[in-house]
């Protein structure tokens, strides 16, 4: 796991709409964090910024003290869990969990071990 730090992170779209207003947040190694709020409040935008799927307009996002504002998503070495079990609905829950590991070239046995361990920790074994 890693420490994730947001320092005055902002997201302003080309049309001038400010979706994220200078958020400061630190998620320590091992912490479990939940973002809640009404639809359209910026939860998904914030997660996409942390993952690198959405650019950051101002401020900094750091993972383990390394600023990752311009680091590609695949090189950030982080993972997230979403409220829906299946990020890719056409794939099984197991394959959704294994997807990133397969893309990084892990062996089948290592993928199976890691997916099952993550499912155990999250109490999702019955959904694999």
From TrEMBL:
GO MF annotation: an example: ATP hydrolysis activity
Record flagged with keyword ATP-binding: yes
Entry GO CC: ATP-binding cassette (ABC) transporter complex, substrate-binding subunit-containing
Domain named ABC transporter: residues: 21-124
Pfam families named among the record's database cross-references: ABC_tran
Parts of the chain that traverse the membrane: none
Taxonomic superkingdom: Bacteria
Record keywords, A-Z: ATP-binding, Nucleotide-binding
One GO biological process term: glycerol-3-phosphate transmembrane transport
Full protein name: sn-glycerol-3-phosphate ABC transporter ATP-binding protein UgpC
């Amino acid at each position: 796991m890693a420490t994730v730090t947001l320092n005055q992170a902002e997201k302003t779209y080309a049309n001038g709409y400010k979706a994220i207003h200078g958020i400061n947040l630190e998620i320590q190694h091992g912490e479990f964090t939940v973002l809640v709020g009404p639809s359209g409040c910026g939860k998904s935008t914030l997660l996409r910024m942390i993952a690198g799927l959405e650019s950051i307009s101002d401020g900094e996002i750091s993972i383990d003290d390394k600023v990752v504002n311009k680091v590609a998503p695949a090189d950030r070495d982080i993972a997230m869990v979403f409220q829906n079990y299946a990020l890719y609905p056409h794939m099984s829950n197991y394959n959704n969990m294994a997807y990133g590991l397969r893309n990084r070239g892990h062996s089948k046995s290592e993928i199976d071990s890691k997916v099952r361990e993550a499912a155990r920790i999250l109490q999702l074994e019955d959904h694999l």
